[in-house]
Write a structure and sequence with these properties.
Blueprint lengths: L7 H18 L2 E5 L2 E5 L7 H12 L1 H19 L2 H16 L3 H6 L1 H20 L5 H14 L4 H17 L5 H10 L8 H28 L7 H20 L1 H4 L4 H20 L2 E6 L2 E6 L1 H18 L6 H24 L3 H18 L4 H34 L3 H10 L6 H16 L5 H19 L3 H13 L9 H10 L3 H23 L2 H4 L1
Antiparallel strand pairs: 1-2, 3-4
Helix pairs in contact: 1-17, 2-17, 3-16, 3-17, 3-22, 4-7, 4-11, 4-15, 6-8, 6-10, 7-8, 7-22, 8-10, 8-21, 8-22, 9-20, 9-21, 13-14, 13-16, 14-15, 15-16, 16-17, 17-22, 19-20, 19-21, 20-21, 21-23
Length: about 525
């Protein structure tokens, strides 16, 4: 069946051809200052072959980010630190099974719940999306080692964050922008949005737990069964080999001290220049004096304890895992406190890869070779991201994107309040399959939807929530989402298999969103 079904690049190119055909069939139009003006369309012909280049240019940031993360984690994985860490974690969790309460709850179930809650909260508070690409490289191997499949690992990070993104109560990229464009106080109406987040997150966790336990008992039910078996065997084999050779290979050498000293020097300088950190949580801003100095001190003490500890057997592994752990911590602090985006996050992970290689005792040539190998491994996903962006480029260059939006908005005029609200939601959902960018879609749709909602008697708060749901759910299935394709590439899950597995779940989320919109006709 896989041989007969088109690969993602073929599917995307077919969609580009269809988009080009529409530029010949539909009249053009554009929105100027919130008003629609008919224009001539610009039929696209040979542009279908330049769409890849234009899409690659438009998505250059996320493509380079994908390559940097893939390259960095290839180096980290080559040190076997993560596989060793997974082995230790599994041993620890198995020991917890001795306690009756933990045995009844299930340690693995608890791990899944806590990880998904964390990432859903990140999505709801500061709109975590691109950052999930890096975390996928950490969580998918963990899920495989726990006896689950790679789809479970993707759900623990990517799906959890995007369900939180859809049901957000503080996300500045959806709630903040849409409310501002609708003339509403920023982050108002948080109470009901918090209810929506709890309902959607709880439902998603229940679904994932049910699926994860099913494939753990009957692995052949997973669409990734054969591929994951090979990867799981490789991870466990690497862990076993690493444990057997731990004494000989994991003693810290000069490279470990050099890498530790370089990081400590950088963090010390960071502490001097940024003694106070301003954490932004939605509309609130919390000043935290001494956060960076405290983290620097914690890194210094922890790292020194590892390096001088008498237990030398796994010192190198523990030091590299310390690097990974503090990379994650500074990713969160950087995003919340200093507005970091993919360029700085890419640099952070690239530094992680290089310094992990130094700590492992690799030469400069070896580190460079590993980085290139990692970039090659993830290059396919990067190419798909560029090609997918070409679809939107063809529609915009053909001047029919706004025409499609105008036609959808016109379909609401004959409906009452409930029908109009659901059609708004449907329109946002359909548009999101073509424009996954929340801020771009808000700028295009909210100046039209907000005044129209006044005419049909639907509150603007409800209109914003319809935008949120429409923006969030289909991100997890549309081939135009660069983040989705990157995550699937990191997890080695083919897009076609993901769609066959995920479409029922996504449909369930869309229906849940429609139901959650109904009370807004009465509470707002």
């Amino acid at each position: 069946m896989n041989k007969l079904f088109p690969v993602p690049i073929v599917i995307i190119f077919i969609v580009i051809l269809l988009a080009a055909l529409l530029t010949w069939l539909l009249p053009g139009g554009e929105y100027i200052d919130g008003r629609f003006h008919p224009t001539d369309s610009q039929p696209q012909t040979w542009q279908v072959f330049t769409a890849f280049y234009d899409g690659f240019v438009n998505q250059a940031g996320i493509i380079v980010f994908i390559l940097c993360v893939g390259a960095a984690f290839w180096v980290v994985n080559a040190t076997r630190a993560i596989t060793n860490g997974i082995h230790s974690f599994l041993s620890f969790s198995q020991r917890l099974e001795r306690f009756p309460l933990m045995r009844r709850i299930g340690v693995n179930n608890l791990v899944i719940v806590l990880v998904m809650l964390l990432f859903s909260l990140f999505g709801a508070v500061f709109g975590m999306s691109e950052e999930t690409i890096a975390f996928t490289a950490l969580i998918v191997p963990l899920a495989l080692s726990m006896g689950y499949d790679s789809i479970t690992g993707v759900c623990m990070v990517y799906v959890a964050a995007h369900v939180g993104f859809a049901g957000a109560f503080l996300n500045p990229f959806t709630v903040g922008i849409a409310q501002d464009l609708s003339g509403l106080p920023i982050f108002s109406g948080m109470g009901y949005r918090l209810v929506c987040w709890v309902v959607l997150t709880a439902g998603t966790i229940f679904f994932v737990l049910r699926y994860a336990n099913k494939v753990r008992k009957k692995p052949h039910l997973s669409p990734m069964w054969e591929d994951d078996n090979l990867r799981r065997e490789a991870i466990l084999a690497e862990s076993d080999a690493a444990v057997e050779g731990a004494v000989a290979q994991n003693r810290p050498g000069c490279g470990a001290w050099v890498a530790f000293s370089l990081i400590l020097a950088a963090l010390t300088a960071f502490s001097v220049f940024y003694p106070v950190t301003s954490i932004k949580m939605g509309a609130r801003e919390l000043f935290v004096p001494g956060l960076i100095p405290f983290l620097t001190l914690a890194f210094a003490l922890w790292g020194l304890w590892i390096l001088v500890s008498r237990k030398k057997a796994d010192s190198k592994t523990r030091l590299i895992l310390l690097f990974v752990g503090f990379t994650v911590v500074f990713l969160v602090v950087g995003v919340l406190g200093y507005g970091w985006y993919i360029s700085k996050i890419a640099g952070l992970f690239l530094a992680l890869g290089i310094l992990s290689g130094i700590a492992a005792g690799y030469t400069a040539n070896t580190i460079a070779g590993k980085l290139i190998e990692g970039a090659k491994d993830i290059l396919g996903a990067a190419l798909i991201v560029g090609l997918a962006a070409g679809i939107v480029h063809v529609l915009e260059e053909g001047r029919i994107m706004d025409r499609i939006l105008f036609a959808m908005a016109g379909s609401m005029k004959s409906m009452g309040r409930p029908g109009s609200l659901q059609v708004m939601y449907l329109i946002q959902t359909v548009i999101n399959t073509l424009i996954p960018s929340a801020s771009a879609k808000a700028a295009m749709t909210m100046p039209i939807m907000a005044p129209f909602s006044d005419l049909v008697g639907v509150s603007r708060q409800a209109t914003v929530l319809a935008f949120q749901f429409g923006d969030g759910f289909t991100n997890m299935i549309t081939p135009i989402s660069g983040v989705l394709l990157a995550v699937l590439g990191i997890a080695h899950v083919p897009y076609t298999r993901w769609v066959r597995w995920a479409w029922r779940f996504i449909l369930g989320l869309i229906l849940a969103g429609a139901l959650l919109l109904i009370p807004t006709l009465f509470v707002w």
